[in-house]
C-alpha cells in the first residue's frame, strides 16, 4: 500500500494522462471509476494494475472480501488529490487502472451482432454496447471512425458491459461479406425507397444490424452491400431518433 498526498506524485500524473487516448494507446491501459465498474472488473477476473481510493473509502473496502485480492496494488490518495484525478462530476473516491481487453481476436459467428459505422458520440457508443449486452447479442463490431471505447464517457455509459460482451474493431465492409458467406442476414438502418419497417426484420441467430453516424447515417458503400435496409416509423413530428435509441428498438425487435 502507498499513501499519496501530493498532485505532483508521479503515479498521480500517469493516471491523469490516461484521460487522453494517446496515453491509453501508449500504455495499453485505461481507467475505470466508481464502485460498480470496479466490482464488475473484479467479478469478471479483470486484474487491477492500480487501485486508488480516498482514506474514507479505504476504511470501507477493508471489510469487503471482494477487494482482498487487490490490496497489494492499493494507493490511498488524499481527497483533494483524488478529485484532481477523477473525471466524474461527483467522485466516488475509487478508481482503477486496468489493461485494455483484446478487441481484435477472432470473431465467433454464433449469434446476432450490432455493427457501428462511424458512431462518434461517446454516450451513444456506450449506451449501444450496454443495450446489446442486455439484449443478449453476441458482440459489437466497431468500424473505423467510432469513438474510443476506453474514454471516460464511454466507460460511464457502458457500465461494465465490455467485461462480459465481446467488442471487436474491424473494417465493416469485408466483415459484412464474411457474415453473408456464413448465411447471416445483414440489415442497415436507412431512409430509402427500398427500406422496410423494422418490424419486418426476421428474428434469428444469424443476423447483424448496422447503425450509422449520428449525422450522415450508414455510408453508401455499406448500404450497397447489405441484404435489406430498415427504418423505424415515427408517427410524431421529430425527424429522426438518437442512434442509441434506434439501436435499442431494433435490437429488442429481433430477439422477441
UniProtKB/TrEMBL annotation:
Signal peptide bounds: none
Question: Which InterPro entries is this protein grouped with?
Answer: Alpha/beta_knot_MTases, MRM3-like_sub_bind, Ribosomal_eL30-like_sf, rRNA_Methyltransferase, SpoU_MeTrfase, SpoU_subst-bd, tRNA_m1G_MTases_N
Q: Which PANTHER family match?
A: RRNA METHYLTRANSFERASE 3, RRNA METHYLTRANSFERASE 3, MITOCHONDRIAL
Q: GO:BP terms for this protein?
A: methylation; RNA processing
Family note: Belongs to the class IV-like SAM-binding methyltransferase superfamily. RNA methyltransferase TrmH family.
Q: What is this protein called?
A: RNA methyltransferase
Give the matching Gene3D superfamilies: 3.30.1330.30, 3.40.1280.10
Stored SMART domains = SpoU_sub_bind
Which keywords has UniProt assigned to this entry?
Answer: Methyltransferase, Transferase
For this record, an example GO cellular component is: cytoplasm
The keyword Cytoplasm appears for this protein: no
What is the organism lineage in this UniProt record?
Bacteria, Bacillati, Bacillota, Bacilli, Lactobacillales
Q: Which organism is it from?
A: Vagococcus humatus
Q: Which residues form the RNA 2-O ribose methyltransferase substrate binding domain?
A: 31-104
Query: Pfam families attached here?
Result: MRM3-like_sub_bind (PF22435), SpoU_methylase (PF00588)
- One GO molecular-function entry: RNA binding
Amino acid at each position: 500500500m502507498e499513501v499519496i498526498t501530493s498532485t505532483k506524485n508521479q503515479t498521480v500524473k500517469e493516471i491523469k494522462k490516461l484521460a487522453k487516448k494517446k496515453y491509453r494507446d501508449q500504455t495499453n491501459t485505461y481507467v475505470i471509476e466508481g464502485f460498480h465498474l470496479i466490482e464488475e472488473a473484479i467479478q469478471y477476473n479483470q486484474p487491477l494494475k492500480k487501485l486508488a481510493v480516498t482514506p474514507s473509502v479505504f476504511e470501507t473496502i477493508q471489510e469487503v472480501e471482494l477487494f482482498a485480492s487487490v490490496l497489494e496494488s492499493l494507493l490511498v490518495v488524499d481527497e483533494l488529490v483524488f478529485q484532481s484525478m477523477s473525471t466524474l462530476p461527483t467522485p466516488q473516491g475509487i478508481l482503477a487502472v486496468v489493461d485494455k481487453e483484446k478487441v481484435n481476436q477472432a470473431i465467433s459467428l454464433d449469434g446476432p451482432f450490432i455493427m457501428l459505422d462511424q458512431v462518434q458520440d461517446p454516450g451513444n457508443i456506450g449506451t449501444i454496447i450496454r443495450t446489446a449486452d442486455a439484449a443478449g447479442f453476441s458482440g459489437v463490431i466497431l468500424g473505423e471512425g467510432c469513438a474510443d471505447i476506453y474514454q471516460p464517457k464511454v466507460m460511464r455509459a457502458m457500465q461494465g458491459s465490455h467485461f462480459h460482451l465481446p467488442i471487436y474493431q474491424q473494417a465493416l465492409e469485408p466483415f459484412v461479406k464474411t457474415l453473408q458467406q456464413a448465411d447471416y442476414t445483414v440489415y442497415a438502418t436507412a431512409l430509402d425507397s427500398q427500406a422496410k419497417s423494422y418490424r419486418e426484420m426476421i428474428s434469428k441467430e444469424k443476423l447483424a444490424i448496422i447503425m450509422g453516424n449520428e449525422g450522415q447515417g450508414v455510408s453508401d458503400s455499406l448500404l450497397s452491400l447489405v441484404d435489406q435496409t430498415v427504418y423505424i416509423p415515427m408517427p410524431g413530428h421529430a425527424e429522426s431518433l438518437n442512434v442509441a435509441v434506434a439501436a435499442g428498438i431494433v435490437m429488442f425487435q429481433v430477439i422477441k
